[in-house]
Structure prediction request, 110 residues.
Amino acid sequence: MSVIRKELAHAAMSRSHALIDYNIHNDIHKRHEFKKQTLLADNSLTKDEKNYAINWITKGYDRNKIIENSGTRRICENCNQKCLATLYCEFCVRNYLKAIGHLEMLILII
Prediction:
């Protein structure tokens, strides 16, 4: 695995965000796909840096999908619930927080 130049990856993420045309990319799904395609087409990044950048923007995309309650739902392989997030299952996170007794965190999430 090569060294990931995080500052270069973050600069590429900033460029992809700055290039968004909000008249064309008028929802979070179109904006995320545009950013992802822009990062994949960036020749200044290595494969590992592209993966790092795409994972970074996907975390924000997952957060926004949950906040706006929009997007394609998938079936979680652990709890078999329909969840919005790509990188994790919001229901599994809630159940974990309930199980360990972090009710104050659960209230903030819900």
